Amino acid sequence: MTLDLTILVGTMTGTAQLVAQELELTFDDENTHVKTRLMDGLDAAAFAGGGLFLICTSTYGQGDVPDNAKALYAALETGRPDLSKVRYGIIALGDRTYAETFCNGGKRFDTLLSALGARRIGDTMLHDASAGTMPEEVALEWAGTWIDRCREALRLAA
Ligand SMILES: Cc1cc2nc3c(=O)[nH]c(=O)nc-3n(C[C@H](O)[C@H](O)[C@H](O)COP(=O)(O)O)c2cc1C
Q1: Which amino acid residue places its CA nearest to atom 4 of ligand 1?
Q2: Is the whole model's pTM more than 0.85, yes or no?
Q3: pLDDT tens-digit readout, 139-156
Q4: 76 and 21 in contact (C-beta within 8 Å)?
Q5: Ligand 1 pocket, 93 CB below 6 A?
Q6: 57 in contact with ligand 1, CB cutoff 6 A
Q7: Which of 8, 122, 124, 156 has the smallest count of CB within 10 Å of its CB?
């Protein structure tokens, strides 16, 4: 079974995009089709038809999603589409220096997607920029297990 995965990237300074590119380079093969899209200009139609998505986003402002994710987030919040055919995972980039709002961008997407009927696979990956680890390395390790879980979940659902 081929796994079709779309990574949606919310980023301000490119870290989340770098993480997504590393994941695409590593996991895109004959069994797993990985496509990366920046969230810029996207609306709820990005989820039309359902499928498997990985939200890879940082956090800015007062625990907000980054600027390029704001229109998509707002479109989902106001349009309230039925996302029951969507399965997703979350990679949330943040910094524990912002204790009150650590990784809130990813957490906000998680809350909103699940409220719209989408179902998360696996635990959210939280990356702390102050920890000294490379987000792309942490993500590669996390995503190997996550993709296995997706295969399992989608096989069971088929
Ligand atoms: C102005 C500013 C505000 C930030 N606010 C938060 C925040 O509220 N919570 C958090 O966890 N991280 C926060 N961060 C950390 C970023 O989310 C983190 O550095 C992330 O890796 C950046 O990824 P990006 O380059 O993809 O945007 C902030 C960073 C900056 C520069």
Answers
A1: 60
A2: yes
A3: 999 999 999 999 999 987
A4: no
A5: yes
A6: no
A7: 156
